[in-house]
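Cross-check.
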Amino acid sequence: MKRSKRLLALALALCTVLAMAGCTDAEPEQMTMRAALVDAPVTLDPARAVTETEKTVAANLFENLMKQTAAGVVGAQASGYEYTDNMDGTETYTFTLRNDIYWSDGKKVTAHDFVYAWQRLVDPATASPHASILNMVAGYADAISGDPTALQVSAGDDRTFVVTISGHCSYFLSVVCTAVSTMPVRADVASPAESEEENQAEQQDQTEPPEQETQPAQDWSMDAATLLTNGPYAVTGMTEEGMSAAAAERYYDARRLGPDVLEFRYTGSSEDAMALYDAGEVDFVLDAGDVEGAVEASSARVSTVLINQMATSLSESVRQAMSMVVDRNALAEAVGSEYRAADGLIPYGIVTSDGSSFRDANGAAIDNDPEEYDARCQEAVGLLLSAGYSTAALEHMNPVTLLYESNAVNVRVAQMLQAVWRDKLGIRVSIRSASPEDMMTALKNGEFSLALTDVSGDRNTALSYLNRFSSDQQENYGQFYSNAYDMLIRVAANSSSDTARDAYLADAEKMLLDSGYVIPLYNETYTWLLRDTLTGIQTDGMGVYYFQNVVEAAS
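Predicted model, tokenized:
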């Protein structure tokens, strides 16, 4: 009897100690990260995601071979890799995938998923705006021309992913292998059901016309039933107003995740997003507008005028003068408070090899000092006079046409450019609008003299903006051809010295702008805001935000 009482007393004492230590059966409190994102996503397909909202949501649901951390680039879906410098000048990366990585339906992620995703990315049928991110991979030119299987990526087995790249690419691991666009997707959900269509065709009398038109396939990434993901979070609910996601049950690094739950709210404007923030309903706002404490960031898009080298006879002096008289501050002010005058082709936010700002390291490539604008206009006129262009000669030059995609902003910008070139230089420029489809056709076919269009980067490196103007690039819409420029880009891309590479890229930007064939105007900016009780958010500098390391800030 006494023994039983002693045991009971000990048990009660132990329970008291455990309770005081907080060791109860109660579930630990979950952390929920709540984010307001302006504009609902149209797609969450990694290959097609374009907006900051789309890329940010996808980045937290999918995961790539490598990932960026505060300590640098580390293995993610890949546990490691081997590098081989081949005798033919190519390089091979052999990635070993983790054995404990899974899709949200429980199936294992394999190297074949990466092969499919990368070849799909460059397949013209996918129409991905990010295909060029793989332009260093051997076979890219043939792949983008219509044979995606030519891209030299392969699976030695389920856990071995092999990539052969042409020459050296210093940012392959840190940028390409961490990007949203190169994240894996499952072939059985992202591919059209070709076999099913073939079976239906065999059963149908081919002599009879179809009873109804085939409906376009629904985007697999916008349906919770087909959105299979491999990242730290898996979707638990989707509506037009937002999405919820919980830590993936079998994520290999689940114990290191900060938030247990992510909640995304889609809003129609920065004002609506900030209303949610002020009401305490969200902790993070992407595109917070002009509010105190918000962090300004540049988008990847730079509005430019391209002068078609093959379709105009404008001399270098005329092209340079046209660039000098553009009042970029006035243009930026006219299109909205979220725009700023372009200081070069490379926007703020793009980094050098050591992670510092390219723009800060190299300074402004374009003088936008408003107090010097009149002096720049006089210098432009003097440049033309010294090149033999009298006022009468300029007035009698054959007019050139500026083509632009039809929207309210572009109309205003085109009219302002037309007026400044006429009033300051006497150069006659007509303006013509085009639908988005016709604009893209004209750009691809080189059927324009001047074009008002955006230049975007698909990776956080100056090379992403500059390489597109190399002679052999399909995105060289202005048909800019310069052997010296091509050589500079080639040397920069293959340089083993980070310092030399950054210097070559700075020289390439200067050479391109001095040519006058590319006239940067302004670039879009946005702001983001994180509640000061939280810390640990990460960004790729291109509008993608990662929440898995967000934690409560130390008080």
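Confidence is low (pLDDT under 50) at residues 1-24, 194-203, 205-216. The two ends are 52 Å apart (CA to CA). Passed to J.P. for a second look.
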